[in-house]
Amino acid sequence: MTESPPVVLVVDDEVQIRRFLRAGLELDGFVVEDAETGADALKSVTLKQPDLVILDLGLPDMDGGDVLERLRSWSTVPLIVLSVRSNESEKVRLLESGADDYVVKPFGMAELLARAHAAMRRQVRATTGEPVVKAGPLTIDLAARIVTLSGTRVTLTPKEYRLLQLLAQHAGNVVTHQYLLKEVWGSPHMHDTHYLRIFVRKLRQKIEQDPTQPQILLTELGVGYRLANPEVAPRVTN
Amino acid sequence: MAYQWRSTFRLETIGRELRGVALALLMVAATTVVAWALIRYLDVRRGSPIYLIPVLLAGWHLGLVPALVAAIAGVLWSGYFFYAPFYTYFVARPAEIINLTLFMIVALVTSHLANSMKKQAELARKRENQMSDLYAFSRQLAAAPTAADIYRAIEEHLATLVQRRVLLFGAGRNGASDVAAPEPVEAAIASIQRGAALATTVSDDTGNIWLVRRVSPRTPAFGVIAIDLGGMPAVDEIRRRVDDALADAAATLERLDVARALNEAKMRSETELLREALIGSVSHELRTPLSAILGAATVLRGSPAVAQDERLRSLAGVVRDEAERLNNDIQNLLDATRISRHQIKPQLEWIEPADIVNSALERRRRRLADHKVVLDMDSNLPFIYVDPVLVQQAFVQIVDNAAKYSPGGSTIDISAGRNGHDVVLSVHDRGAGLTKDEMAQLGERFFRGHRLAGITSGSGLGLWIAKAFVGANGGRLQAASAGADQGTTVSLFLPYNADATQPEAAPDD
């Protein structure tokens, strides 16, 4: 990478959290800006033009969810939410409001970096139209609509392909059940989670070495699915 | 209305007196028959005292007027039979005058004696009733679990004392009465509660007059009482009666130490609330610094300076692992609080059983690093309809226990299979095992085997939480062990309803 280092905006009112995030992110090559309040954060996104936002939900001046919604009305900057509440329906709500992913406190730096890189690469892919997504032995060529497993072509039904395509577009970031159901089967089936279970089982039988221990198509219980993304090798290990 | 009431009262009294007089005369008549028989067959000539009998009886049982009537009638008849000129009712001789006076005195004395004894008996009975009421009341107070129960007891007690509709309100916001008082009465109650006055009267929309006052002028803790006096004009009189009754009641409350009982009951319920609130807020307060500690430890561990020195690296790992363990303990406390507050509400959905196992193992990857984990999962298990997050948390607890109670390097077998109408997720370790006693107590809150106390630490909440979470999903937890040091198998049984409810295939095209 010869371009200038990526800028990350850390929004958290706890000084100790900001300190370790700054250290961890700087070690990973980010330039770190920070904000303590929601109002600060909204201002900084305009002024600093960050490549990534890490947003804590418990802010003193406004609800993190509101910050997210206001931000999303004019910015598509990759955004990771930090939540202390491990409440699945809240995670889903945040993802639907436009968060790219979430990390539940307490978390290790490696986990955050993996999510952050995935979110940023999704942005790059959206702007450059990068056509090929790799996940372990699996290669998804989004332009040619071809899926290969260790070089061998995999035959998929149109809906199976659509499912994989949606996950590939979010490579590494979680995609909610509702989003997948809406995109593949249409809005009336938004809550038919069992459609997904059946299709994911079939898909896994085609692409996983051991479908009972998937390495590519991963389940986020109560939230959705994500594609494992070994390309994102964080420099800080857990 | 008042007049009618009084005249009814008088008529009733007259009726009773007339009945008494008739009975008295009947008794005199009966005595006369006896007197006549005495004279006729035994030739008794000095039998006038026999007429004292009806006088005494009437005096004792029927009251003064019938006794006097019996005395006069008795003197007349005894004059007729026993004094010359015989067989006339003429009363003239000194003996007869003395008799009459004597009879009158007997009538007076007996009726008075009887009357006062009756009064005393009645008083004693009343007092006995009061005592037993009071005793019941004090027992109620002592057993009352909450302040509201105490208020209710006081309310009932006062209602019997005052013989009117009574509403009692606590000194604070938590009034005991479930029934709301009418609007103007509420306002009066509020002003008395604020301490604006000790007592006041208001009338409500229906014209009923309410007396609102503190139960005790001295002890505000006894609360405010509102008494419905109805539309009676004699409010002042009733008010005096109420004041007397309440003075008694307040003294009783004082003596029974109701103020303390109230405080204790409030404390009991508040302590429970406080404890749970404390657990909630402490956990939250602990989590923020824990997040900083854990995050900082992972940054340190990966930083170039530390990563080069294995000793420093492993130290940073210790900080990270212990912070994580602390976090798990806090999570357990929170979960236990949720369970005891009945706040577990499963979000049911169809789920691949293997996903639950994999997600639990992923969360415990580091913890299991020292063990050899052997997985055996049926690839064609039915989907189950559960809250996947709750079941995963239950499974994490079981995995934790297996890792905790079996030696490093030993094998842990994890399996997902089918058994009848259940999907069974099992963890089998080669560790400390369970004795019969331990098996019986397993899953109780805070249970920890004493035998293993030295091996490892823990809160003893894990299996209890697992049991509750699985139970909330319609499943059950089962532990099996061949005995001490024979290893343990813990299984979660999750029903899947073999035939009916497997999800229909999704449309493909």
Q: Return the average pLDDT of chain A rounded to an integer.
A: 89
Pairing-aware structural class of the strands and helices of chain B?
A: alpha+beta
In the CATH scheme, the class of the largest domain in chain A would be Alpha Beta
Q: Give the CATH topology of the largest domain in chain B.
A: Heat Shock Protein 90
The number of domains of chain B: 4
CATH architecture of the largest domain in chain A: 3-Layer(aba) Sandwich
What would the CATH topology of the largest domain in chain A be?
A: Rossmann fold
Largest sheet of chain A: 5 strands, parallel
- Give the neighbour order of strands across the main sheet of chain B: 6-8-9-11-10
Q: Can you give the helix content of chain B as a percent range?
A: 55-70%
Q: Rounded to an integer, what's the Rg of chain B over CA atoms?
A: 44 Å
Shape of chain B: elongated
What is the element string of chain B, with H for helices and E for strands?
A: HHHHHEHEEEHHHHEHEEHEEHHEE
Average predicted confidence as pLDDT of chain B: 80
Distance between the termini of chain B: 92 Å
Spatial order of strands in the largest sheet of chain A: 2-1-3-4-5
Q: What is the subunit arrangement here?
A: heterodimer
Can I get a quick summary?
The complex is a heterodimer of chains A (238) and B (509). Chain A is of the alpha/beta class and 238 residues long.
Overview of the structural elements:
The complex is a heterodimer of chains A (238) and B (509). Chain A is of the alpha/beta class and 238 residues long. Chain A is built from 8 helices and 12 strands. The radius of gyration of chain A is 18 Å and the shape is globular. The two termini of chain A are 24 Å apart. Chain B has 509 residues and is α+β, with helices and mostly antiparallel strands. Chain B has 4 domains: 121 residues, no CATH class; 113 residues, 2-Layer Sandwich (Beta-Lactamase), CATH 3.30.450.30; 78 residues; 147 residues, Heat Shock Protein 90 (2-Layer Sandwich). Chain B has 14 helices and 11 strands. Chain B has a 5-stranded mixed β-sheet. In chain B, helix 1 runs antiparallel to helix 2 and helix 10 packs across helix 14. The N terminus of chain B is likely disordered.
